[in-house]
Amino acid sequence: MSEGSKQADSLHRFLLEGQPVRGELVRLDNSWQAALEHRDYPAPVRELLGQAMAAASLLASTLKFDGAMTLQVQGDGPVNLLVVQCTSELVIRGTAQVQEAPSAGASFREMLGDGTMAITIEQKGQSERYQGIVPMEGENLAACLEAYFERSEQLPTRLWLSADADAASGLLLQIVPGEDLSGDDWNRAVMLADTVKDEELRQLPVMHLLHRLYHEDDVRLFDASPVSFRCSCSREKIADVLRRLGQEEVDDILKEQGQVEVGCDFCGRQYHFDRVDAAGLFAEVGRSQGSPTRH
Length: 295
Description:
Blueprint (H helix, E strand, L loop, with lengths): L9 E7 L4 E8 L1 H7 L6 H20 L4 E9 L3 E9 L3 E8 L9 H5 L2 E9 L5 E7 L5 H13 L3 E7 L4 E8 L9 H9 L4 H6 L2 H9 L4 E3 L3 E2 L1 E2 L5 H11 L1 H11 L2 E4 L6 E4 L1 H15 L6
Parallel strand pairs: 5-12
Antiparallel strand pairs: 1-2, 1-10, 1-11, 2-9, 3-4, 3-6, 4-5, 6-7, 8-9, 13-14
């Protein structure tokens, strides 16, 4: 990939050589568009969800796990729930639950109000899960996540997040665990990162952005890791949900609405089942139960 490319849908780790500072940059383009394909969020909600998806990618990359990490923000505002999941392979999906459309240009607090933030880690093959829950502290998502790290990880961490209709991006800086913090390297690295503009974060090629911020430093940039959007929903899984709901309730919905329509909370894809589809669902149940064997 050429140095001039934006290196879309990828996460880039870097180190400031000789300093106790590590960082990550994430760019979501096609993956962000795929997440929005079946959604029509109000602009402030869309931008907030994009920031959350960029943040989840960054967080998942800093944590050691093999499974899935879920970032959940729950509040008492017009947007009462924000959920983003990112796997250890950097496969992401996310959703926002909107009670009423927030006003144009609504702030983070105006959208979510007061509430809590939770980060949950589920390891493959393990029934137990780790969950950290903290009050929402901060005037934006980045500040809330910084407070989470301060409380839960005791690890100085700073984030810069940006999203629009086309792309979502994020920058994370973190102290390298166990390094000497007596110098001023951390404060200087944060001060320089604070000069980044939203458009630069979303649009500048990674090498150009790092050079813009840290041209006086020796920056070691590691190979990029791909990030992708994928939802685990399917028609077969929705069919299983309807079977569990029961034939009587499905028949009632068909009588009232003519079809059963089920939407995936994460990707927004709609699944439709008419009377013929429903009859097939429960005929399959009958066949799977089998019939008495004659001897």
